[in-house]
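Input structure tokens:
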């Protein structure tokens, strides 16, 4: 039996470890966190995050070979392998503020591991970290005078929220980076053995430490770059009467381009894309590569442009004023099937509309609590309404901001009749049937397609 510890019971620690536990019944897995409320929730029937399939797998494994605890020190002492999946947000202060990764939680964890260890261990970087972080960790951990040896591995996580359990069950690859020493390679092999319990060997890639650390940042940068690329073209489509869905389909048929991640949208969100690209930008600057830094920075700039463009388009389309107008935002989560609102474009749009003094009502099936927390003091100026029919009643406009499938099932005829006329619908996810909505009477503004508007005769038709 191997004692596996995971430090950090957030989205990553909390959704990966139950899958490890279910495939490795012979190992004992403990997930710890400094956040007592979070651990209490993991021990209850009301898990702290919403993730499809997670309840079932936690129920199957918890109390058998999966445990949640706040007793970090004791479990460090008992562990053979420690995964560290604490948060690594963007630094908000000092050198590198707004770009570099804030490694304070990670370093505190390393020191805590050192203090409480009485045996040698493998420490696995699961958090996303700047390339060469493992070097600093090795220095801290192996500076002990207890005669202990720590092997550091990089095993970045590629799961996406909303599909975390299935991504972990059936990953397209598992990446493990280690030192090219005998001890480093033994540690790599030990981790490979664990994944090999359910992942085919040819999907387990082993590399050197730095390639593994860097590949995680690069994977996110490439994914985000595709979204910014298609969103840039969506702006051009709106000017030229080309249709972004048709363009995406046409280019995506080329296997060299591929069809994934070409859905134009109000922008990408989530806790990682922006943070990881900014981290990459900071690293490039630090290594004296300003041109490379500027190149990647543009991916984030384009995303901010897309969010701002969407909100600005709402204002201009609604006769240049939305002050005092009720606007229903359908969706607060950064994507469907999650309650996560970190860096959600929905909340960016919300903030922009509040600046214009709109009367905002937000509806979302799972993310209202997080949205309320994220908006902080602005939340007092927002109404939260779980029922989309109530949210849109007496509204001048609806903005679809998260691609929840349930929004495709609503009775838009009923919604239209309950709204102030002319009624507008801004589809930030190109989720709905725009022609049908137009026929019902809505003035429809999709992404990357010309608007379908009834306002032509009044001279408000868009270019
Ligand atoms: P999170 O904020 O949801 O969870 C991190 C947890 O770590 C929190 O519960 C926090 O209380 C805990 N923590 C912080 N310091 C601690 C300490 N010293 N001891 C014990 N616990 C501590 O973050 P997350 O979304 O799970 O992300 C974690 C890491 O994984 C980040 O580096 C992120 O970039 C990366 N990542 C995230 C995703 C994702 O989809 N969320 C996917 C891949 C990689
Ligand atoms: C992303 C990556 O997909 C994961 O591989 C990675 O592990 C993770 O970041 C991470 O490091 O945190 P996630 O952010 O959970 O996962 O979700 P995605 O499905 O990648 O979506 C990110 C954002 O892009 C969402 O706002 C989504 O709506 C948007 N998106 C995605 C688009 O606008 N268009 C697309 O075609 C795809």
């Amino acid at each position: 039996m191997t004692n596996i510890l995971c430090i950090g019971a957030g989205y990553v620690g909390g959704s990966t470890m139950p899958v490890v536990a279910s495939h490795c019944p012979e190992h004992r897995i403990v997930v710890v966190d400094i956040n007592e409320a979070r651990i209490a929730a993991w021990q209850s029937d009301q898990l702290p995050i919403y993730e499809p399939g997670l309840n079932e797998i936690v129920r199957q494994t918890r109390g058998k070979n999966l445990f949640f605890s706040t007793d970090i020190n004791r479990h460090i002492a008992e562990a053979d392998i420690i995964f560290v999946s604490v948060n690594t947000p963007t630094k908000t202060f000092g050198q590198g503020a707004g770009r570099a990764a804030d490694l304070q939680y990670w370093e505190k964890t390393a020191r805590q591991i050192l203090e409480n260890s009485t045996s040698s261990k493998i420490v696995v970087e699961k958090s996303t970290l700047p390339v060469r972080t493992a070097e600093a960790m090795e220095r801290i951990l192996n500076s002990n005078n207890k005669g202990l040896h720590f092997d550091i591995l990089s095993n970045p996580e590629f799961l996406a929220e909303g599909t975390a359990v299935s991504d972990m069950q059936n990953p397209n690859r598992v990446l493990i980076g280690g030192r090219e020493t005998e001890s480093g390679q033994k540690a790599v092999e030990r981790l490979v053995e664990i994944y090999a319990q359910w992942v085919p060997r040819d999907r387990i890639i082993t590399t050197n430490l730095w390639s593994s650390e860097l590949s995680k940042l690069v994977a996110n940068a490439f994914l985000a770059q595709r979204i910014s690329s298609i969103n840039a073209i969506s702006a051009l489509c709106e000017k030229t009467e080309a249709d972004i869905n048709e363009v995406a389909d046409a280019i995506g048929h080329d296997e060299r381009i591929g069809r994934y991640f070409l859905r134009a949208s109000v922008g990408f969100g989530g806790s990682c894309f922006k943070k990881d690209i900014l981290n990459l930008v900071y690293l490039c600057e630090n290594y004296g590569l300003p041109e490379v830094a500027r190149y990647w920075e543009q991916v984030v700039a384009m995303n901010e442009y897309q969010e701002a463009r969407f909100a600005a388009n709402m204002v201009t389309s609604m006769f240049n004023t939305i002050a005092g107008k009720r606007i229903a935002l359908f969706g607060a989560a950064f994507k469907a099937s999650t309650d996560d609102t970190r860096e959600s474009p929905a909340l960016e749009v919300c903030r922009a509309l509040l600046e214009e003094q709109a009367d905002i009502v937000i509806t979302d099936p799972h993310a209202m609590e997080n949205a309320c927390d994220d908006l902080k003091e602005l939340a007092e100026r927002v109404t939260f309404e779980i029922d989309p029919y109530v949210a849109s009643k007496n509204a001048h406009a609806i903005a679809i901001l998260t691609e929840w499938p349930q929004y495709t099932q609503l009775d838009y005829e009923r919604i239209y009749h309950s709204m102030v006329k002319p009624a507008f619908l801004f589809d930030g996810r190109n989720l709905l049937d725009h022609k049908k909505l137009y026929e019902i009477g809505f003035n429809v503004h999709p992404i990357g397609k010309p608007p379908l508007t009834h306002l032509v005769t009044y001279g408000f038709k868009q270019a």
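The mean pLDDT is 96. The first strand starts at residue 3 and ends at 7.
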